[in-house]
C-alpha cells in the first residue's frame, strides 16, 4: 500500500471580501495515511449583504482545496466472517484505501474476488459489519466512518492494524434492516434520486440535472464510479448556482450513529442579510428537531443484549430514558447549545470553524450527492 506522508502547507487565499486559511496539521486516525486532506479550516467572511462574491468567484479559484477533499481516503481492513468460511484455512484479510466520496458497492468487487475461494460468494448477499452493526451501503463511506468511528479508532501501539477501520465481510444471513444492493444499477438509481433532492433544495427545480445529455450523465457516473476527479467535477460544477442569490436553500443532512438524517431548510442569508455560518446554522435548529436521533444512542450495538433482558428491566430502562429525555430537553434549546456542552461534530472527517460559511462548505465539503453531511459524535466519545 502506498502511503504518502506529505502535508499541505498553510495557504492563504484572498478573493475580494473573503479570506480563507487552511492547513493539515492533524488528522483523525482514519485520515492520517498521506492524504491531501484539509484538517483545519478557519474562514473569516465580511459578507453582510447579497453583494458578496459569487459562488464561482469565491470557490473555483482554488481547485487544490476541492481536490484535497475529493482525494480523502480511509484505510480499511476487510476480514471474512468465520461463519462464512468454507475452506480449512482462513483467508488473509484484505486492505485498501477507500475513497470518502464513494459508496461501498462501488469499491468492494475486489473484496469479493479476494474471498471467493474461501466462501460461497453470492453477489447480492454481501454485507459489511462494524462492531456488530451492519453497514448501510447507501450512505457515503466518509459519512459512515465519521458516524460509526468518529475519533475513537484507537488500538494498541503494538497492533499491526492500528489506524485501520476493521470491517467484517459476510456473504449470508443478510440483515433485514438494511437495503440490498443487487447490482450497480441499484446504487446508480439511488445516487441520482438523492442528487435530484439536493438540487431541488438548492434551486427549487431539477432543470440542470434533467438537461444533461446521455454523455454528460455517463461522465458524471463514471467520475463517481472510478473516482475520477476531472470527469466528475466537469459535470457536477453545473449544479452549483453562479451566485448566492440563486440559492433557495442549502442542502444539509445532520446524521448521528447512521440513523435516518435530520434535514432542515437552511437559507444562505439570515434576516439581516448576513451569510449563514455553521454557528448560525446550529443556533437555527431547535434541539428537539434532532432529539429523536440522539436518544438511545447505543440501540444499534446493544439491541441483541436488550432483547435478553426481562420485562422488569425493560420497564425500568424506559422510565430512566424518559427522565433523561426530559432532562436533556430542559437543558438544551438549540443544537448549538448541545454542541457547546462539549459534543463534537465532523464534516468530511474534520471540524471546521464555527465561522465557516455554510454555502462555501456545501460546495467544498459536500459529498457527490451534493448534500453537506454534518455528523454528530457520541457525547461519551468526545
UniProtKB/TrEMBL annotation:
Domain called Autophagy protein ATG5 UblA: residue spans: 69-171
GO terms (BP aspect): autophagy of mitochondrion; cellular response to nitrogen starvation; piecemeal microautophagy of the nucleus
Origin: domain of life: Eukaryota
Location of the region described as Disordered in the Swiss-Prot/TrEMBL record: 296-323
GO cellular component, one term: phagophore assembly site membrane
Low complexity composition-biased segments: 296-318
Location relative to the cell: Preautophagosomal structure membrane
Domain Autophagy protein ATG5 alpha-helical bundle region, residue spans: 185-241
InterPro entries: Atg5, ATG5_HBR, Atg5_HR, ATG5_UblA, Atg5_UblA_dom_sf, ATG5_UblB
Entry keywords, A to Z: Autophagy, Isopeptide bond, Membrane, Ubl conjugation
Coiled-coil features, chain-numbered ranges: none
A GO term, aspect molecular function: Atg8-family ligase activity
One Pfam entry name: ATG5_HBR
Major site of localization recorded for this protein: membrane
Ranges where the Autophagy protein ATG5 UblB domain occurs: 249-376
Subunit relationships: Conjugated with ATG12.
Record-stated family: Belongs to the ATG5 family.
Function, as annotated: Involved in autophagic vesicle formation.
Protein name as it appears in the record: Autophagy protein 5
Top-level taxonomy: Eukaryota, Amoebozoa, Evosea, Eumycetozoa, Dictyostelia
Amino acid at each position: 500500500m502506498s502511503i504518502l506522508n506529505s502535508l499541505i502547507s498553510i495557504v492563504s487565499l484572498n478573493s475580494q471580501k473573503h479570506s480563507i486559511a487552511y492547513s493539515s496539521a492533524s488528522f483523525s486516525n482514519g485520515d492520517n495515511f498521506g492524504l491531501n486532506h484539509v484538517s483545519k479550516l478557519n474562514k473569516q467572511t465580511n459578507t453582510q449583504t447579497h453583494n458578496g462574491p459569487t459562488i464561482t468567484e469565491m470557490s473555483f479559484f482554488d481547485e487544490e482545496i476541492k481536490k484535497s477533499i475529493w482525494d480523502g481516503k480511509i484505510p480499511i481492513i476487510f476480514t471474512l466472517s468465520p461463519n462464512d468460511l468454507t475452506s480449512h484455512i482462513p483467508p488473509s484479510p484484505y486492505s485498501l484505501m477507500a475513497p470518502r466520496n464513494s459508496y461501498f458497492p462501488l469499491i468492494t468487487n475486489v473484496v469479493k474476488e479476494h474471498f471467493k475461494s474461501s466462501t460461497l460468494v453470492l453477489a447480492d448477499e454481501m454485507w459489511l459489519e462494524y462492531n456488530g452493526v451492519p453497514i448501510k451501503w447507501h450512505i457515503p463511506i466518509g459519512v459512515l466512518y465519521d458516524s460509526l468511528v468518529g475519533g475513537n479508532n484507537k488500538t494498541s501501539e503494538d497492533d499491526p492494524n492500528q489506524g485501520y477501520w476493521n470491517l467484517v465481510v459476510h456473504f449470508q444471513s443478510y440483515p433485514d434492516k438494511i437495503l440490498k444492493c443487487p447490482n450497480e444499477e441499484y446504487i446508480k438509481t439511488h445516487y441520482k434520486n438523492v442528487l435530484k433532492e439536493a438540487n431541488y433544495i438548492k434551486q427549487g427545480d431539477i432543470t440542470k440535472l434533467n438537461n444533461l445529455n446521455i454523455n454528460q450523465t455517463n461522465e458524471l457516473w463514471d467520475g463517481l464510479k472510478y473516482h475520477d476527479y476531472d470527469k466528475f467535477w466537469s459535470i457536477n460544477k453545473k449544479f452549483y448556482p453562479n451566485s448566492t442569490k440563486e440559492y433557495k436553500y442549502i442542502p444539509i443532512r445532520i446524521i448521528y450513529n447512521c440513523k435516518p438524517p435530520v434535514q432542515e431548510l437552511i437559507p444562505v442569508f439570515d434576516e439581516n442579510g448576513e451569510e449563514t455560518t455553521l454557528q448560525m446554522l446550529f443556533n437555527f435548529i431547535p434541539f428537539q428537531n434532532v432529539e429523536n436521533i440522539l436518544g438511545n444512542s447505543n440501540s444499534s450495538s446493544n439491541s441483541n443484549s436488550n432483547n435478553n433482558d426481562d420485562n422488569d428491566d425493560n420497564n425500568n430502562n424506559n422510565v430512566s430514558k424518559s427522565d433523561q429525555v426530559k432532562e436533556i430537553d430542559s437543558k438544551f434549546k438549540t443544537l448549538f447549545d448541545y454542541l457547546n456542552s462539549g459534543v463534537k461534530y465532523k464534516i468530511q472527517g474534520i471540524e471546521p470553524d464555527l465561522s465557516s460559511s455554510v454555502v462555501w462548505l456545501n460546495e467544498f465539503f459536500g459529498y457527490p450527492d451534493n448534500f453537506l453531511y454534518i455528523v454528530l459524535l457520541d457525547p461519551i466519545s468526545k
